[in-house]
Each structure stands twice: as C-alpha cells, then as structure tokens.
Amino acid sequence: MTQTDKERGGADALATPFTPGMRDNPAELADFTDGIVGRPLPIADAGGPSPEQEFAAEWNNAAYNCFSSGHKFCREVCPVMQVTRNESWTPTAFHANVVAMGQGELSVEDVAADYVNCTQCGACELRCPNTLFTGDFYRFRTRTVDVVKAVRALAVDQGVHQEGWRTWNARTDELTHEPVLGETPVNQDHVRDWSAGLDLPIGGETVLFVDCEAAFYRTSVPRAVAQVLQLAGYEFGLMGEQWCCGGPAAEMGYVDQAQRFARHNLDNWRSTGTRRVLVLDPHDYISFTEDYPKYFGAEYDIEVVLVVELFAQLIREGRLNPSVPVERTITYHDPCRLNKRKGIWQEPREILRAIPGLTFNDVDRVTQWSYCSGGGGGLPIEKPELTERISASRLEKAAALEVDTLVSACPWSERPLTAAGESHDIDVVDIHELLAASLGIEVGGTTDGGAS
Amino acid sequence: MTLQVERLDEVVTALRTVLADDQILTSRADRLNRARVPAPFPVHRWTERLPDLAVLPTSTEQVAGVVRIANDLRVPVVPRDGGTGLTDGAVPLRGGIVVDVKRMNDVREIDLENRTVRVGTGINMLKLNEQLARHGLFYPDDPASYPCSLVGGRIGTSGWSLIGARYGHTRDLVLSFDHVLPTGEVMHVGDGIGHQISKSSSGYQLKHLFMGHQGTLGIATEATLKLYPKPEAELSPFWAFDNYDDAYRCVGALARAGVATFAGAVLFDEWKVAYLRRDDEAYIPQPGDVRALVCAVMYGYEDEVRPAGRRLFRIAKEHGARYLGDEISEGDWAARHDRYATPLHGRTKDGQVVPMSWHCEDAAVNYTRLPAVSKVWHEIVADLRRKTDVFDDWGMFAYTSADTGVDYLTEIDVGIWEQQLDDRAWELWVRAKRDIAAVALANNASISACHGSCREGEVDLVPQELGRGYDVMLDLKRTLDPNNIMNPGKYHLDRAYRAGGR
Fold first, then answer.
1. 3.30.450.20, 3.30.420.40, 3.30.70.360, 3.40.50.1860: CATH of A320-438
2. Is the pTM of this model over 0.90?
3. ipTM, interface predicted TM-score of the complex
4. Cβ distance of A14 and B382 shorter than 8 Å
5. Which of A157, A174, B36, B201 is deepest in the core (most CB within 10 A)?
6. What is the pLDDT of residues B151-183, one digit of tens each?
7. Which of B83, B147, B275 sits opposite A73 (nearest CB)?
C-alpha cells in the first residue's frame, strides 16, 4: 500500500504528496485562500526607512538564507572564531545583524567594529549546508564575504570609520600603493625596484601584476616568478604605471577608492595594449576576477592568468623541468583565496610534486578550510593580535607534521606565518621561490622588506 | 531584557570580581546574537528574548562565580553552548545573564589505556575528533549538528546520535562531568564517585537527572567521555521501494536483525521522496516509481562490516528492495550525513518557489506505531497548508534509536517561509506543534526523542506525558534552585514556586 492511496472519503488534493506547479495538478489547489501570505509584516519604525533598512532590504534574501536556517556549521571553520570563541564575530552573526538592521534593532554604528573580525577567507560559505555545487550546473553559494564587504562599505558611507583602516586607505590613496613598509615610503618610483637587473620590458600584450606586499616587502616572490617565466621563454612585461589593485580598499569598505584604483589600472592596461594580466597574488586574483568585472561589466575584456596555474601547465608541457633537488620536509598552506574562494588547490600540489628532493606531508584541502594565516580582509591592520593568534594556530598544525618548511602561495600570508614560524623553527617559503630554486635560479630580493 | 540600568551596573560590577572586562559582553549586537537558535520564531518578536548581558567564562571556577553572583542578586542565568538546539533551551525568556561556554573548549587529558578523554564542555565533537584521529580514536556522538554543537549542549539536552544504535547516545557516551548547581556550588556527576566509571550501583543514579534538563538545573563545565577505535569501514546502502509499506517492513526487519555493526537505519516516507524529487538539488534523481527509501549504515572493521552487509542486503532483497548502487549510496549518505545539505526553498501550492527554511518536529515512536503517527502528522501539516502557503510539507524521516529496533526518532520536516511568519502564522504553528505532540502521546510515544519538549506548544503536554514524574521535576527544581534563577520559564517549572508548591 502506498501513503498516496486516496482511500479516505472527502480527502482533498493536500492529503497526498504532489509537486506544486505541475500542469495536471487538481484544480482545487487554486481554491484555498491564503490568510497570511501577501500581507505586510509588522515593522517597527516611524517615518521612512533608515539607510540600514534600505541596506537590509537589498541583502534580505542573502541574510535570511542564513538567519532562518541558523545551523551555524560555519562556526568551527571560521579562523577568527577559532581563536576568539566569541559568537558575535561569526558568519551567522554577520547575517543576523543585517536582519536586525532591517528590523530597526541595530544601527551600523552598533556593529561596524564587529565586522572587522573577518579575514574574508570564505570557509564559512563552503561549510554552509545551504551551499551546494551539484554536477557542473547547479551552484549556490552562501554570500557571507559579500555581506561583510557590504556592511563595511555601509559603515564608511555612513561616516563610521575604523581608525586603522581609515589611515591605511588614506595613505594608500596618497601613495598609490599600500604602506606595507610602515614609515619607509612606497611609491611609483619604487614599484619596479624588485625587478632590478632582470631587464623586463614595460607594457605589451601580457603584463605581470605584482601586489603591494610582494613589490615592496617580499620581493623574492616577483623575482622568482619573473625569472621562471624568462626561463620558460614566456613573453611578458611590467605595467606602465601600476597602482594597488584596489582590492584591500574594497575589502575594508572604501569602495569609491577601490573603483578609482581599478579604473586607473584598466586604463593603464589599455594604454600599453595589454590584453592579458599575469597574477601571482591570490588577493589580486580575486580583485581582477570578481571586483573588476562588477565595476566594468562588458567593457572588461582582460584575460586574467594565475601564475600558479600557468606554472603547473608549463611543467605539464615540459617547458619547465625542475631538476635541482630541494632537500626539505614541507607541508603546503592552501591560501584561502585560492582554495576556499576559487577552488584552486590541485595546481600548487602538482608543482610541489614535480620538485625533486621534497618530502611532502600534505593536508587535504577540506581540512584546510579551517586554516588561515589571519592576513586577509584588513584584519592585521585593525587587529594584529588576532592575525598573530591565527598564524600561530596554523603553525602548530604544521609543527605537528614535523616539517621544516611551510610553503604558501600567497605573499600576504607569508609575513604573519613567518613570524609565527620562528618559535617552531619552521621556514615559510613561497611556492614560486621553491620552484625557482629547483630550476637552478638564484632568486635574489628580500623576504622581509629589506629589514635584515 | 528585564534589568533596570542601575541593576545592570550592579550585576556588571559584581561580575568584574570573577571575570575580566573582555569576558563580559553588553552591546546590543552581542545580546541579539545570543537570543537565537535555529528553531523558527517571528523575527519581529526577536527582542522579547534578549538577555541583559553575556559572559564568556574560561573555567569551572568562573562559571561557579557567575552563578553564585546571579543567585545572590536573583538574576536569571541561561547556559548557552552551541545554541543549535531546536527547543529553545539556550534562549533567554526572562533576560538575565547568558553564560556562553564556548571558550572552555580545550582537551585536557587523553587516557589511551582507559579510552577516555577529558574536555571542556565548550568543545565541538568534530574538532575533538580531529585531535583524537591522531590516536586512531573517535568520540561517536553524531547529531545532525555534529559540526557545530558542543559537548556541554549535548549534556544539557541529553542528545540523540544518528549512529546511536551502535555506539549509544550522549547519555551513554558521557561518563561523568563537573556541574555547577543553581546556587553556584560545584558537583561532580557520574556513576558513583568515578570520573571514568561506566557503571556503578552506588547511590542514586544522578547522571541522567543532570542531563537533558535544558539548562534548568545548572551548567556542565568539564566532561569525561568514552572513546572508541575510529572505524575502519563504513557501509551505507540505500534501497528503493515503490511504496511506503514495503519500505516500513524492510526497515523494521533490518533493525531487528541484531547485526552488531548496525549503527542505524533511516526510512524516507513517500512525502519525503516526493519533496526531495521536487525541491532538493542534492537528491540524485530516481525513476518515478521510487516512492520510499531505506538506508542503513554499518561501522566497524572491514572483516565485520562485509559479512554484516551481506546479511542486511539479503534481508532487504526479501522485502522487495532495489539497491541503488554504490555511487548513489555513498553520495547520498555523504550529502545527508556528512554535509547535511539543506534546500533553501519550498513551494506555494500553485508552484511558486519561495525561500523557506527547514524545521522539524520529532517524537520517540515505537516501530508498530510509525504508520499511524505519520499519517496523522501529515494531516496536521496539510491543514496548515489549507490555511496558508507559509508552510510546506517536506516529508518524514524515521531513524532507529536503538540496536533492537524498538523505537524511532520520527520527524516531520516542515518548510517555513520565515519572512512571512507573522503572529497569526506563529499561532497556527504553535497549535500544530501541540497537536503533533498530542498525536505522539496518543500513540504511547514520547513527545521528543531528540529535540526536547520545552517550546511553546508541545511543552503544555509535558505534565501529561510525565504524570507523577512531572511533580517530581517540580520538587527537584525547587530544591536545587531555590530562587528560580536557572533558565527560568522553561518546562512550566515556575509552577514549582507557586503558593502551595505544585
């Protein structure tokens, strides 16, 4: 017997399971009158909607997807939550606050400082039971990073600033680069200093974009990238006048500034006939593949190539043949913006497995959803102590694998991880640097802004 | 919120004698985010449940200090662990102090010889198991909220585990714990005196009493847990049926077979399959004549699980089951158990897709009563849908609770369009919940196997369910919590303090 047998007299269409909306459904389904849906819900406010309520209306569905299910699977993978254990600083709180703003219960001033506590790593979105990638067609991803960015932008728009971020972005605006060397000036005159002696052309169809941290602080990374590309015979130049990608400003809520910087860079690529941009930094990769298309729409026709993916391909094609053994015991740190935001985790491992001499104690990418350096989303500017604890926690996991080296593919992670590695005697090395070493390249440059 | 500003200052000043400033949270957002659990509640009434403040203690002593102060000042205390429960245990009904234990999440001692671990109750099971994996061990308390609920919440709610038929439920897996009583005294609860004793017959058996009280009798702060070898093999076959009755007979036979590695079985009814087919993107489409599903899961060593699996396959075949194949079985088990993918939408009767979230009402029902309970529960939800599209019937699961197949966690899943949940819809929902509980009691079932029964609606029937036992609850509550400070307003326990006692 089935549950759908209509054995009872008088049973209506709702007495059996059915698929709403099908053509052959009983006509009587239209006869029920709804006493609730369609009427306005009580909303506590007087006068017109506040900026917060307008904002909440825009983000209502995104926030409600989380708020009304409320499973909180995200909590234990959140790098900030892991070290603070404060539920006010969790992805679910970031969504719930938006709903509360819509209800007139919170102003952006009440919560702006809470939203500092996010590295925008994206782990929460992957762990969310609402996120689902089915086959190659159905992709739904909970939007927590976007919500955090939007609330930060709302705060700036309403004149609510975090002092560290305000100063940082003001200086970036002035210098056209992030002040990654503190008081030591960074500017247009020095943005290509890292390439000294490499004899790189300016402009051309393909340019290499170097993020602020790599251009000024860890110059060993762009030097490694440039020399590996030269070895492979891959033609590229440097940007005519490179500004910061604008991504950090966008992450901290300074949207107008981010767009001005993006505009400059796109115009500059146009002026040198550039069609393709090589990116070595995962944060830039997010800016160029997610922010810029949003800013420019169809006008944006630049091909963006991630260097790690390119190197893996060049190895596969036999154009790069790492042969110098690198005698290190390593583990690999999946940069959040590659692994969690973009699903890029295979290519770095391909590269590492091609390097002779390495002992590779790998940790799978899913376990690494809960790992982070704490270096993203502006966190180290406002709360360096949290970045430090997140990095320390990451290094503890590396130390448990008894490695001497932690390899990363993200210059922004390498500064905090290096600091945390000192107490474990673990070196932090960039994957591009490691590959260059195995290709027999003396990289040069500095890994600490020239401090040593 | 219940405290006047001057009173709040007095409480905060007192709390500063046991806590650091950054452990005392008073901002509006801090409080709003500790007034919520996954169970539905009309959003426009959110602030009715605000605590006055929240604290983040890091030790048993600090928890005891906070509770002592609260008891002295007669301020309500609400323990909050994961805040993932479905019965509002962690929701403050009278304001007061939320004691959020998440910072007590350390692993304090792993005893490999006696196979136990001692932890702070703010630790999550998945995180604990990451650490235990290094020793080849695991802690098999496995609720749907496995990635986010915390050991302390599992104690306070006496949790149910999906693989409980093999490993037992929270009450079997927690050997003992430190517990802060409503007066601020600290007590150790276990079998006898032991921290690591699984069975004692000395004295009253207090452990059950201090589990599942929904925070009305105090706060567990440190627990000693039973550990098992991490299973080498998992087998999770899914079988299809063209009707509910065959699937029902099959799940009963599988559970009664007495296979030692059997960890649980799940029955998907016809409403459930119809719902998954129409609205769940994680569902792997099956032919139209698939109307009910059964899955079973076995854990153990490979040389145990293989022959056990052969036996269960034989039983399933005898009951007309069609095996869905390894790929679907593994994929579907992963989607439903490892990920708990949840659809974000249901439909109105005319087919409009609308954002809805998944809510469920459960009961502990004997095998023989499952069809009767299922039938009436669907009728209750159909009646909701006759009145409004705020509700959608997402079908039922029945999960084995024990290794003999005696009873099942039976749940009806209801999609709720929360953005439309106004006072009238809420009233309909509360009434439906009360009706659902009444059906359970009419079938000699318990109102809840898993979620608890202290929410509006079903809570009204708890005295009826427990009879004289409910009066004992009142007596105990009054004795242990003389000032009714511990999670007041739950389970109608205020009755314990009325003139003339109960």
1. 3.40.50.1860
2. yes
3. 0.95
4. yes
5. B36
6. 999 999 999 999 999 999 999 999 999 999 999
7. B147
